[in-house]
Write a structure and sequence with these properties.
Layout (H helix, E strand, L loop, with lengths): L5 H14 L2 H6 L8 H5 L21 H19 L7 H13 L7 H11 L5 H20 L4 H17 L6
Helix pairs in contact: 1-4, 4-6, 5-6, 6-8, 7-8
C-alpha cells in the first residue's frame, strides 16, 4: 500500500532479497542459523527445544548497525517519495537524537550511530554534545581500560562524528 511507483516497488523487492541473504544474517547478529525466520519466531514457551545453550546471542557490531541503518534509510526514503506529507525520517531522527544524548550504556552508542547515519542536518550544539560524550568515554577508559561500554561509546561517537562532519558549514 505504500508503493505507488514501480521504482519504489523495485527498491523494496531488491532490499527484501538482500536482507534474505545469509551474508545479511551477520549484520543482524544471527549468522549461526540456517534460517532467520526460525530464530525470529521461536518462543521458549512454545518450543522447549530452544534453550539458552542451543542458541548463543552474537554481539551486534556498530559497523553492522551502520550498514543496516543505511539500508533502512534507503527503503524509507524510497517510500517517502510517494507520500508527500511523510514525516517518518523527522520522527526517526528525533528519537535517535533523544536517545543519543541521554545516558544509557545499552542504547546510547547505538542511537549515536543511527543519529549520525540518518541526519540530514546538524548543529554545532549537537556536535558539541557528541564531543562531550566522546570526552566522557575517554575519561572512563583512562580510569579502567577494561571498561567495554566506554570503548563502545567511543567507537559510536567516532562513527557519528564521521557521518555528521560533512553536514557542517565550512
Amino acid at each position: 500500500s505504500l508503493c505507488s511507483t514501480e521504482e519504489t516497488k523495485q527498491v523494496l523487492r531488491l532490499s527484501l532479497t538482500e536482507f534474505s541473504l545469509p551474508k545479511f544474517y551477520l549484520l543482524f547478529g544471527i549468522s549461526k542459523v540456517k534460517s532467520a525466520a526460525v530464530i525470529a519466531f521461536r518462543s521458549s514457551y512454545r518450543d522447549r527445544s530452544f534453550s539458552p545453550g542451543s542458541y548463543e546471542r552474537e554481539t551486534f557490531a556498530l559497523t553492522s548497525l551502520e550498514t543496516v541503518t543505511e539500508a533502512l534509510l534507503e527503503i524509507m526514503e524510497a517510500c517517502m517519495r510517494d507520500i508527500p506529507t511523510c514525516k517518518w525520517l523527522d520522527q526517526w531522527t528525533e528519537l535517535a537524537q533523544k536517545f543519543a544524548f541521554q545516558y544509557n550504556p545499552s542504547l546510547q552508542p547505538r542511537a549515536l550511530v543511527v543519529f549520525g547515519c540518518i541526519s540530514k542536518r546538524v548543529s554545532h550544539g549537537q556536535i558539541k554534545q557528541i564531543i562531550r560524550i566522546l570526552s566522557k568515554g575517554l575519561e572512563s577508559c583512562l580510569k579502567g581500560p577494561d571498561n567495554y561500554n566506554s570503548q563502545v561509546l567511543i567507537e559510536a561517537t567516532v562513527i557519528a562524528l564521521t557521518k555528521l562532519q560533512p553536514l557542517l558549514n565550512k
